[in-house]
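Hi R.,

As promised on Friday, here is the backbone we talked about, encoded as structure tokens. Could you run it through your design pipeline when you get a chance and send me back a sequence?
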């Protein structure tokens, strides 16, 4: 019964490791462009695995997803079109359909990163803490560190491009504030997530982007 209960986690972890390993090797040693074009499909698949590992889906999870997705897309729209958030940058065409210059799929990326960071904070760093501000700060820090690791690789792969070529510090400040605010909202909803795959997914992606930073 225990093995059956945990089977979504084991299957998801295996698939995530396999896909990210194959992707990293393919990008570095084989055909970079062909493997990069699979990025949107990979993002959607990882999101679906995240949802699968939520177990009994409750209304609260969908509320978090909707708020996280919309917040990500709206802040990106503001950022792309005004430069008031993150700095001056533009998305390429890799991620498909856009709304006001922002790929629709990018909201999934925002939710997955912030939710996984939140789960790590709640399950591993502060498993018994009820202090919303502390949870929000550490979630924001984790999400920002992940963005710091990912950002140069994303630029190298032409996910998006910064005006002038440099990544502004303001980008990381905005990441910290926005992801921290989302985590504070999650905590106000009294979420008790037992999603074991969410932390593993973030760890896998950290290793993936570090590997690409060293290899590209």
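Update: got your reply. Pasting your designed sequence below so it's all in one thread:
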């Amino acid at each position: 019964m225990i093995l059956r209960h945990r089977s979504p986690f084991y299957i998801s972890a295996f698939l995530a490791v396999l896909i990210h390993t194959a992707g990293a090797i393919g990008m570095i040693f084989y055909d970079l462009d062909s493997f990069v074009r699979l990025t949107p499909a990979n993002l959607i698949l990882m999101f679906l695995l995240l949802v699968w590992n939520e177990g009994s889906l409750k209304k609260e999870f969908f509320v978090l997803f909707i708020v996280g997705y919309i917040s990500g897309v709206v802040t990106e729209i503001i950022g792309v079109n005004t430069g008031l958030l993150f700095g001056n940058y533009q998305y390429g065409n890799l991620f498909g359909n856009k709304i006001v210059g922002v790929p629709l799929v990018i909201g999934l990326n925002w939710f997955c990163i912030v939710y996984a960071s939140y789960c790590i904070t709640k399950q591993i760093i502060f498993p018994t803490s009820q202090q919303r501000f502390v949870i929000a700060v550490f979630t924001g820090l984790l999400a920002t560190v992940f963005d710091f690791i990912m950002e140069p690789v994303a630029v190298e792969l032409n996910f998006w491009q910064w005006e002038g070529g440099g990544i502004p510090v303001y980008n990381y400040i905005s990441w910290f504030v926005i992801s921290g605010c989302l985590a504070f909202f999650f905590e106000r909803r009294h979420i008790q997530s037992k999603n074991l795959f969410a932390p593993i997914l973030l760890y896998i992606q950290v290793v993936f982007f570090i590997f690409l930073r060293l290899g590209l």
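One thing I noticed while checking it: The longest strand covers residues 89-91.

Thanks again,
M.
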